[in-house]
Known about the structure:
Elements: E1 2-3, E2 5-10, E3 14-20, H1 24-31, E4 41-45, E5 59-67, H2 79-91, E6 98-99
Parallel strand pairs: 1-6
Antiparallel strand pairs: 2-3, 3-5, 4-5
Amino acid sequence: MKAFTVSKIENEEFAQYNIVFETETELSEFVSQFPKYVKVYSSTISGMLMYSNAPQDRMPIASFEVSLSPDKVTGEANESGIKRLAKFHQIVNIDAIEVSAVRV
Length: 104
């Protein structure tokens, strides 16, 4: 899988992934892999001209974030968040995505 840029944050309490694609088609193909409960969202991001090979300033992006900290109701682990993150990792190996961005 190819992407323009990938950013990731994952710790004991929170996980966030943002994958920027060069085309809407690539974004749609990526997002369509996930069941709705995983909640991978598509959008656009601007300001990409900081990369010398950015095809345009405004680019399509897929976003996934989840809270893993204990919920306020039971004080126990956020089981739905853990399930969403596990499914995200099952579908895509974020470290295997080929990144093409070249920073200015």
